[in-house]
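Module 6 notes. Inverse folding takes a fixed backbone as the condition and produces residue identities as the prediction. Think of it as a translation problem where the source language is geometry and the target language is the twenty amino acids. Below is one complete input and output pair. Work through it position by position during the lab.
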């Protein structure tokens, strides 16, 4: 049909705002006549979903999508957007013998993408947190096994970001009896541990650099030649920023070491930073003229990290993580720094 001759583009800059797809998904068609470009077709929101192939099947059924926003009779079953869909997928997966990992239907935390201009569809963070509490009350298992979805990025018109209240939510869960054995004191200690070893690594790293560089021995200084001045210069200094500058600037504060979000971020960053450290040590000597990171490098790293998580998690699942009758268990639970 000649589709191979029709150019398709994905817009990721201000161009999309000019053509109505900066807020919601949409499809534009253009035609060029010399130096002039004409927009010949545009469809967005519900209409654009017809281009996808899944939701249009739901739309032609008698009950439709069964969502609250639909203009359907009151006797029709109604659920929040995508809730019926997610619940149905969970049932299908269980029937097929598959394990589905998805946020829990009915928890409503996924509504944190809405903003006031959406009218009745907008859900404030206060409303969402209350919905989570109501779910705990109405569900016989409480929040045990529940997966709560919180979007890391939302529309700028939503000033009431749910992730800014994550500490409050975690604290409330702890007060309700969840996360019994993990408290901010333990988190603080982990922050101190991460901070201390980052400084210790920097001490060893700089000591090696200083001794080899001022010694000016050719067989030693050649290691730093292409890393400080050559193709690996960017990765070399990124290594210092991630493994030293970030930990000392971020983990220096007491409040940061007691914040679950910051601690998670720093843990991932430090692991990535030390992977970069080993990468530039090994690959910088194998190919000194080419200081780049490829998708294959990230893929291999992801493979080994995945294997480590799998086997570590499998081993931990076989043993109790809380040692019964340990004489210092109580002291650990009430530990304060």
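Target side of the pair, the amino acids:
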């Amino acid at each position: 049909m000649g589709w191979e001759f029709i150019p398709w583009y994905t817009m990721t800059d201000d161009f999309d705002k000019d053509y109505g797809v900066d807020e919601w998904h949409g499809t534009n068609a253009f035609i060029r006549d010399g130096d002039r470009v004409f927009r010949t077709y545009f469809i967005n929101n519900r209409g654009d979903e017809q281009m996808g192939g899944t939701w249009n099947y739901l739309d032609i059924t008698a009950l439709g999508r069964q969502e609250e926003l639909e203009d359907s009779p009151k006797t029709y079953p109604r659920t929040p957007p995508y809730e019926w869909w997610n619940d149905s997928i969970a049932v299908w997966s269980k029937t097929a013998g598959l394990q589905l990992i998805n946020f829990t239907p009915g928890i409503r935390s996924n509504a944190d993408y809405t903003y006031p201009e959406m009218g009745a569809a907008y859900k404030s963070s206060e409303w969402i947190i209350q919905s989570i509490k109501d779910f705990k009350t109405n569900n016989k298992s409480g929040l045990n096994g529940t997966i709560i979805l919180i979007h890391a990025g939302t529309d700028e018109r939503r000033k009431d970001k749910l992730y800014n209240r994550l500490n409050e939510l975690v604290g409330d869960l702890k007060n309700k009896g969840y996360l019994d054995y993990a408290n901010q004191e333990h988190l603080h200690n982990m922050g101190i541990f991460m901070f201390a070893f980052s400084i210790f690594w920097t001490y060893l790293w700089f000591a090696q650099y200083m001794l080899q560089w001022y010694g000016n021995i050719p067989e030693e200084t050649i290691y730093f030649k292409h890393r400080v001045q050559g193709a690996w210069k960017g990765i070399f200094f990124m290594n210092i920023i991630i493994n030293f500058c970030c930990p000392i600037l971020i983990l220096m504060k007491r409040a940061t070491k007691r914040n679950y979000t910051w601690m998670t971020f720093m843990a991932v960053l430090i692991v990535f930073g030390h992977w970069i450290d080993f990468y530039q040590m090994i690959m910088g000597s194998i190919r000194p003229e080419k200081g780049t990171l490829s998708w294959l490098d990230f893929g291999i790293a992801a493979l080994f990290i995945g294997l480590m998580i799998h086997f570590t998690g499998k081993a931990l699942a076989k043993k109790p993580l809380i040692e019964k009758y340990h004489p210092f268990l109580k002291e650990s639970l009430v530990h304060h720094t």
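Reference fact for the lab report: Residues 103-175 form one domain.
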